[in-house]
Amino acid sequence: MRRILGIALAVVLLCGVTAIALAGGEKTPGTATKTVKGVIGSEKSEYFRDPDVVKALADKGYTVKTETSGSWAMDQLALKEFDFAFPGSSEPAPEIEAAAGVKGAQTTRPFFSPLVVIARANAARVLADNGLAKMTGKNWGTLLMGPYLRAADEKRTWQQLSGSAAHPELGGTVFIKTTDPATSNSGALFLAATSNVANGNNVVSDQAGIDRTAPLMQKLISVQGALEPSTDDPFRAFISGSGEPLILAYESQVAALLQQGRAPGDMVVLYPDTTVNSPHTFVPISQNAEELGNLLANDPKLRELAVRHGFRPQNGVPEFTAATAAHAAYLNPELTGIRQVSAPTVKILMALAERAKG
Question: 0.85 cut: is pTM over it?
Answer without folding.
Answer: yes
